[in-house]
Amino acid sequence: MAEPPGTRTSGTEQNEGGESTLTVLVALGANAAIGVLKLIAGLLTGSAAMLAEAGHSVADTATEGLLLTALRRSARAADRRHPFGYGKERFFWALIAAVSIFVSGAVFAIYEGLHTILDGEAEQTAVLVAYIVLAISFVLEGISWTQAVRQLRREAAADDLSPLEWLRRTDDPTVKTVFFEDSAALIGLLLAFGGVGLHQLTGSAIWDGVASLLIGLLLTGVAYILGRTNKGLLIGRQADARTVYAIRDALAARPEVDAVVDVLTMMLGTDQILLCARLDFDDALGAAVLERTCVAIDADLRERFPDLAEVFLEPVPRTDPTMRERVLSRYGSQTELGRPTP
């Protein structure tokens, strides 16, 4: 069985960071090329679905640019003004990317769809151009999607999770964003193909408008999912439950610790965990021994869990009623003190 998240080596994390950059760059190149082709096809054919897909690609290209900004700025070291580092910048720029998908892609596609449906008939020209561009776009988007899926599966396997479960739990918004937007792009291309084809078969532009409208709704759903994910990370999500349990068990196994009263974690960035542990130490320990023990526990935890960016250890009595009430109010009345349920 794979080790809990947070126990991987820094070298592995650096490799993942490099692969995230590669995934974003592949998507950026594909979307930029596809956007130009779709725009030309949309102008030549007058297809609302093709124009909506052009807007979709523009939104995706802007998203990749924002994700590259997120990767670069979040890697900066901690300083005086930001003592916990800049890791959450990745979450912020990924949130802005989700907003970009909605504003640049979804709103434009919905507008084009409604305009075409309400405006009535529209002449369709150069249909073959639309089909060729859609086919080329599908191939290029498929290449980008394959790279995203390859990284997703590799990281899911490293965390001993299914790909779907990894998407739900991950603290790396870059891979998740690329995967969702590429998946939406492939679905959008199929919708555009259907809209153009039905317009050609029936002579009614309504089908073109319906396809554009569906593309807009698809992008709205993707933007909502990504926005909700990054909102949770920005607010301050705890570390993976298995990591929290592993840290708790490591603390409880220390001979100097009588009880683990509370374990608080928060993601400071991708693969960056803030830990605050409240411990009831052996009363026989003197002040000097307690200080050295805290230093030793800190070093041991950082060695076993390289994702720990900051560690705070607070000695507390397990019988303190105020502390007990705090823990139970957070984790529920059925939770055993010292065994918080993440």
Produce a short descriptive summary.
It is built from 10 helices and 3 strands, in the order ααααααααββαβα.
Notes on the protein architecture:
The chain has helices at residues 10-45, 48-74, 89-119, 127-158, 163-169, 173-202, 206-235, 241-252, 287-304, 321-331; strands at residues 257-269, 272-281, 308-315. Helix 2 packs antiparallel against helix 6 and helix 4 (127-158) crosses helix 5. Strands 1-2-3 form a 3-stranded mixed beta sheet, with helices on both faces. With 342 residues, it is mostly helical. Residues 334-342 have low confidence and may be disordered. A hairpin with a 2-residue loop joins strand 1 and strand 2 (272-281). It folds into 2 domains: 10-235, Alpha-lytic protease prodomain-like, CATH 1.20.1510.10; 241-331, Cation efflux protein, cytoplasmic domain (Alpha-Beta Plaits, 2-Layer Sandwich). The chain is elongated. It contains 10 helices and 3 strands.
Overall geometric form = elongated
CATH architecture of the largest domain: Up-down Bundle
CATH topology of the largest domain: Alpha-lytic protease prodomain-like
The count of DSSP E runs of length 2 or more, i.e. the number of strands, is: 3
Q: What is the terminal separation in angstroms?
A: 21 Å
Classified by CATH, the class of the largest domain is Mainly Alpha
Question: Which labels suit this protein?
Answer:
about 350 residues, mainly alpha, Alpha-lytic protease prodomain-like, Alpha-Beta Plaits, 2 domains, 10 helices, about 70% helix, disordered C terminus
